[in-house]
Amino acid sequence: MLAIDMHSENSEDLLKELNQATEELMSINEIFFGGAQWQIAHRRQQDAFGSWLRYIRKDPVFQSRSKPLLVDMKRKDKR
Fold first, then answer.
1. Is the N or C terminus of the chain more exposed, i.e. has fewer CB atoms within 10 Å?
2. Terminal Cα-to-Cα distance of the chain (whole angstroms)
């Protein structure tokens, strides 16, 4: 995939959702941590982050920068 193939409006929507979901999660009072409201907000934030991550992993720049990291991690695991 070429960088030109990535749709900027899609990235804007994904990043906006991630920011809103994170803001919602962070705004919940700590006394509700783990409760139903928190779990719903947490799931929304995880879903938004997953969508954003899948999107940026399509970026050829991200792919080219990630490959050396994966090779280095495999070398460290073998030690």
1. C
2. 35
Other C-beta atoms lying within 10 Å of the C-beta of residue 67: 10
Identify whether the C-beta of residue 52 lies closer than 8 Å to the C-beta of residue 39.
no
* 3: its two tokens: 């960088």
Q: Is the pTM of this model over 0.85?
A: no
**Per residue in 17-74, pLDDT tens?**
999 999 999 999 999 999 999 999 999 999 999 999 988 888 776 667 666 655 555 6
d(CA 54, CA 78): 28
DSSP 1-12: --GGGS-HHHHH
